Amino acid sequence: MTSSSQTASGKNALTAQPGSAGFWDDFAFGDTWTSKTGSWIVDARASWLVKQRRAELADQRGAVESDVRTALIDLQVATDQVVLAESNRQLATQTLQQSQDRFAVGVADSVEVVNSQEALAAADHDYVNGLFSQHIAKITLAHAMGEAEKDLPELLERKMQ
User: Has residue 26 got a pLDDT over 80?
Assistant: First the structure.
């Protein structure tokens, strides 16, 4: 083998993928250069591929961990939103009841009652939006954890209260 063919063989070994057509064509077993330098090139290529795959795996793990953390934070925020919206609903219901009582005894006019009804409707709307956000956050968390297919029916199941 000449020096130029040795260089070409080395370049082919560094750029070809194991298992691809022609990968082993440049390695003539028993050839002195291939037996020594060629195996080193294959070992270096394999070592480089292993390091690259490990780095890709670490990147993927980091991305999954980030997705799970973000989904957990979103779920906590959505849950807090539901709790707050439920509290606002209770307050709006009490305010409406008080407005209706004041109207019944003649202390307040119908405008106060209508305003209280509007406040209750807005609180109900916020509560429904909070529940929607919470369900989306649960689905997103299940997806980030790779369990969406298993957990989705349970997450979407409507529970009667």
Answer: no
